[in-house]
Amino acid sequence: MKSIKINTAGGESVILMGGTVDDLRERLPAKGLYIITDTNVGRIYRDIFPKGEVLEIEAGEKSKTPQVVIDLCRRMLDAGADRSSFVLGFGGGVVCDIAGLTASLFMRGVRHAFVSTSLLSQIDASIGGKNGVNLGEYKNIIGTIRQPEFVLCDHNMLATLPEEEFLSGMGEMYKHAAIRDRNLFFDLSASADRIAARDPGILGDLILRSVRIKAAIVRRDPMENGIRRLLNFGHTFGHVLEIHYGMPHGVAVARGMVIAAELSAWTGEMPHAEYRLLSVEMEKAGLIREAELPPNVIGRIARDKKSEAGSVNFVLLRAVGKAIVRRLSLTDLQAFVNYYNERKDNSQSIQQGK
Amino acid sequence: MKSIKINTAGGESVILMGGTVDDLRERLPAKGLYIITDTNVGRIYRDIFPKGEVLEIEAGEKSKTPQVVIDLCRRMLDAGADRSSFVLGFGGGVVCDIAGLTASLFMRGVRHAFVSTSLLSQIDASIGGKNGVNLGEYKNIIGTIRQPEFVLCDHNMLATLPEEEFLSGMGEMYKHAAIRDRNLFFDLSASADRIAARDPGILGDLILRSVRIKAAIVRRDPMENGIRRLLNFGHTFGHVLEIHYGMPHGVAVARGMVIAAELSAWTGEMPHAEYRLLSVEMEKAGLIREAELPPNVIGRIARDKKSEAGSVNFVLLRAVGKAIVRRLSLTDLQAFVNYYNERKDNSQSIQQGK
User: Fold this and answer.
1) Is A2-161 CATH 3.40.50.880?
2) B267-292, pLDDT tens digit by residue?
3) A79 in B contact zone (CB under 8 Å)
4) Whole-number Å distance between alpha carbons of A220 and A213
5) Is A300 on the interface with B (CB under 8 A)?
6) What span, in angstroms and rounded, lies between the C-alpha atoms of A346 and A343?
7) What CATH class is the domain B176-191+222-353?
8) What is the ipTM of this complex?
9) What are the CA-CA distances from residue A337 to residues A263, A298, A299 (Å)?
10) Contact across the interface for A77 and B142, Cβ inside 8 Å
């Protein structure tokens, strides 16, 4: 087991990489433990849960509502929780988002930690202290930034993941490579077959490298005022696709990354060959589904949390492995969307032999 | 205008004591201002509000629900708010509690500040960064700790306060005196007539001294792990009375203080004469209403947020002007409640000539 320490203004956190639930004994309180999990994870792992009160929520993004957090606070109160209680989120990204927010709010904040059961949450969702729930169709509008005390990543748990969720996690790995680590990008490409076979050795190594990239960024920018914005690469278009088509988060972000890379080439920030490199490799990895941008995409983006006071901060690439933030006017963005959707129509017409 | 700086791990805050709304110009953003207020305050002060979107909520404690905070986030989103927006809570303690929590949660936290319009909030509610809403009958179960950028206390606004709200504020002043400042206690007693006449000169001085006591405590203990617990003096019984009898917060706390003082004498921590001193002076100030403790008071306290893992941390007095924290078993507390309610019954019987 490897430990990665994250020390920020938002609190100190330790990522326990490759450990098991047995490693948690001295890190959890003897009593007052509240385990927040979902119906899927509960069914598979209930037998190995540490001793505590289990609070189960429905599996899936639809549970990310303020009402679910309020209900969890009420259930904790009814079960006798107090300010000395400890919340353990046991599940994937949705569970960790909800458990983190519940722990931030219950009696103005109690201790909390996560056991990450999905590839996506082992790489991404549990690191950085961001939590949140959705407000209608708007994602993560209500939340806080607060580091969990620790995040346990047990790679054995990845064996039972549905393919769709596994691909979601791979999308995030490609994201970390694309924004900060060109070598990781080529290693991901070179290991494509072993990854698809879920070789635990290669996965452990790739997760660790991916987490280190994110941890280094979060450490430098806990409140997301600067470099941490790079982690939003692919998310602006990704969120729109996720909601409009109901795609899994990581898959939508993967598609959003390729669109953002094309935008990078369109604005002249990145050579077109780099865009080709990224899109070809991600397609080989099974990550890309064609998707037209839905109507009113600009209106949605303008109202999304990545927009600020009219224009939009956008994460673009200079090259595969090097991301930057540029401010784009909504007018320019609309012009790109028109170009993108028209080109798409053309290429589909050609493929269909018209 | 006097400025008091509060610098804590929860953020930096400035209390602008004796200023007016005109003093806010350079502290507020030119655009993106969202003013959260209630129906009463809106009616009186709408004309002097800074330029911004006004979000009104129903006046009164009944608005302190999670749903009101969610609705405010939704209204901000609909009005075009983003991460660069600024929330100004304009009102008394309830408005500041709700505005502070809304600002903490909206897009994981936006800038915020308060204009305090009530005596209670000028003294107490806006300082320390604690916000929160109630969960059913349980107070402030859902909240965060986050300092507002500034709190403007315009003493002119106190002229129009209803008597009940004014007394609530005086209760908090007596609390600060009782826990930390014996001189303030005697000055409050000596100035009783001028206070009752709402002499603005004496009020400004007393508020300032009271705020300095609280600010010094909060500065030393932003996360409420130590000395800040003293500020809960009177609140354990006070919360129970507030909910059971529907008393105003400050009046309930005043009653709770006298009960806690009697408990201090009962446990032997404080001479009985000191309890008499406190109760006589507070009665003269019009602050004490007789109130029996409701049934199951211990059960309520055990579930209240001041209880931890079975027994209870209780703020007691050694003398008027010197508070301490003691851990009391629920059994001892029950014995005191029996003694208290029986004594009360006896004295009532005697008064009624039985």
Assistant:
1) no
2) 999 999 999 999 999 999 888 777 78
3) no
4) 11
5) no
6) 5
7) mainly alpha
8) 0.80
9) 9, 8, 12
10) no
